[in-house]
Specification:
Elements (H helix, E strand, L loop, with lengths): L14 H4 L9 H8 L7 H15 L5 H16 L29 H15 L1 H8 L7
Helix pairs in contact: 3-5, 4-5, 4-6
Amino acid sequence: MLKCPFMNTPYVPNISHILGALSIYDLEETIGKELWKYDPNNQEDREKIIVSFILKDLMYLSYRHRFILISALRDALDNSEFDFSKEFENDYDEYITMAWNETEIADPRGFFADIYRLANEVWKDDLQKASLEAQSTW
């Protein structure tokens, strides 16, 4: 069974973890200022945000973890009822402040579809490697 990084518990992928790099609680003056240079609704800027921040931030995960996470994202994208806008909501009780909240993202599903597309491009070799392994042995 695949374990959580740094913990001895089973890894359960969570779509909200994908946006971890966009959580700027107490980092508004540093990472917040850097992210706010981009417009998440502009395709070119969005790709920079995804590749330079989101995918880069997830590199601490092993190729197996990234495969499972991207597979979960694919499943969510296949579910027409999945509400991607909730992933951009701030949760002050949990100390989560997003660089852009759900009202500022014009197409949350499209944003996640771009993450999926770019992850499959950037991590192509790792995702291919993981797909060829017997996941039951993880």
